[in-house]
Amino acid sequence: MIRALLLTLALAIAACGRTAPPAEAPSFRRGGEPIASAAIFDLERAHGLWHVVARFPNPAEAGRTGDTVSLLAPLAGGGGVTFQRDWNGGSGYVQASSPMPGRFVLTPTAAIPAAQLWVLWVAGDYETLVIGTPDGTLGWVLNRRPDISAERLGVAREILDFNGYDATRLQRTP
Fold this sequence. Notes:
By secondary structure, this protein is α+β, with helices and mostly antiparallel strands. The chain has one domain (2-172): Calycin beta-barrel core domain (Lipocalin). The chain contains three helices and nine strands, in the order ααββββββββαβ. The protein has helices at residues 2-15, 43-46, 150-162; strands at 48-55, 68-74, 80-87, 90-100, 103-106, 116-122, 128-132, 139-143, 171-172. Strands 1-2-3-4-5-6-7-8 form an eight-stranded antiparallel β-barrel. A hairpin with a 5-residue loop joins strand 2 (68-74) and strand 3. It is globular. Mean pLDDT is 83; it is low at 1-12 and 17-22. Keywords: Signal. It comes from Wenxinia marina DSM 24838. Pfam families: Lipocalin_2. Residues 114-174 form the Lipocalin/cytosolic fatty-acid binding domain.
């Protein structure tokens, strides 16, 4: 359940600042395999700055370096969050509701389509998140610091594989 929650968060963050959805975004998940979100995800502990340390090669993110995602204060009335995404030469915001722990539904805008981001896994120390989408078009590994240990990245790959992703296609970000 934690793995699915992280995947959802990754997708929401990936959509921040996107100018237009790709015509046909590739899926990095094996069709028909189950995916689960992190039911014990604590949104309050996840607030703050995250570095995108690995991702699947989505055309909308080509050429981005220094990618960060911030989870900002909950929306008025609770149950949601604002994602801020910054990268070399750009930034963007998107609001999302959270119908259940570890799952986010992006509020569509002219530049950002409706999408779900699931947190697939959160490390017990809240230093690493794995985020994806049920359709497999996005997947991120987020870390509080811009570097990540080989061991922790290996765990993230296992979580993505467990949730039906082709983890061999995950790429470190510059």
